Amino acid sequence: MITITVEEAYQTCHILIKQHSKTFAKAFSPLPRKKRNAVWAIYAFCRKVDDIVDEGQSPEEELAQFEATFSQFLNGTLPLIDPEWVALNDVFNTFEMDEQPFHEMIAGQRMDLYKKRYATLAEVENYSYHVASTVGLMLLPVLAPTTHKELKPSGIALGKAMQLTNILRDIGEDLDRDRIYIPKQLLDDYHITEEELFAKNVEPRFVQMWEQLACRAEELYKEAFKDMHLYPFDSRLSVHGAGLMYRAILKAVRLNKHDVFTNRSFVPKEEKELIIAELKP
């Protein structure tokens, strides 16, 4: 049997996050090594679930199997062979981890297997909690070992804000998968039909609707940022930086004239570096 060291396991997770999320990799790189490694391991767990749902050959079966594997991991009966599990095991042994958000995130990803339309903003925010806020809750014991319970409400807000940002940026890509995360109630308010949305035209009603949902995201960012002082200094820069970099995606879409159909808006590397630089004392 090939054995892998904990350090090698963390490096595998680090490669994964660099390949799939440059924003998160950039934001959390200033963390102290122990915290940074833990973030990479948690990201690898979440990435695995996401890939099963989006790219799996039999996603329902694969997700059920992954959930069973996670249960084995939790009860200590899983052979620690794969680097992702080796790394996550070290995280659970090092920090005061809560298994509930891990289960909730899997449940949230399962929603994408059967739910492709949302009626209200409340439904969208519930989905956003399950697929994004849960990730924040997983990270909190790592990022703020002594204040993570106090930070739960603002951590939940930050996750929802980031997911709404994803939704606003990825409208076109989601349409290609026959998924609409813009709530029907909001579409109706602006008299936009599904057929019009699938036509992928950036016109005034669409821009106004987009901006209303973006306003809700901005409110959630504001709610999240008010508690940044509760993070220990060595984590504050990374969390605040990640939030600001994600919020900057909204600005990038606006600079792209709200074209979320033919171009994927992104925050330039130079702007990310400026955001981090301005946060440093």
Automatic annotation (TrEMBL):
Pathway: Carotenoid biosynthesis
Entry keyword annotation includes Transferase: yes
One Pfam family here: SQS_PSY
UniProt-listed InterPro entries: Isoprenoid_synthase_dom_sf, Squ/phyt_synthse, Squalene/phytoene_synthase_CS, Trans_IPPS_bact-type, Trans_IPPS_HH
Highest taxon, organism lineage: Bacteria
CDD domains: Trans_IPPS_HH
EC number(s) from the headed UniProt entry: 2.5.1.32
Keywords: Carotenoid biosynthesis, Transferase
Molecular function GO terms recorded: transferase activity
Designated name of the protein: Phytoene synthase
Taxonomic lineage: Bacteria, Bacillati, Bacillota, Bacilli, Bacillales
